[in-house]
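S.,

Sequence below, as promised.
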Amino acid sequence: MGVLTDDPRYSPLNSALETLNGLNPNLRVLKIETSQINDTITITVVLTTPYSAINNETLASAVENFIVRDLNMTTNLILSNGTLFYGDTAVNIAVRVEG
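The prediction came back faster than expected:
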């Protein structure tokens, strides 16, 4: 993440980058967790950045939207009504940013 682009694949990240106003977001992955309950898999990604210039919820939402769109476009996961599916299994992506 670091360059504004007109490519629709990366558009969810543009507003987060504009808020940083040229600062490198220094995003670090703290952990990735998976859990499964019945036919639903949840993948939780926890990121950290030292900057307070951007709202953590806004950044988390932008990264989450990017991941969902990217998985839909580059894998065999299907996006239906805002939820990713792998066959009959729902795949939820949850992103959290900690300061």
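Residues 56-74 form the longest helix (19 residues).

Coffee later?
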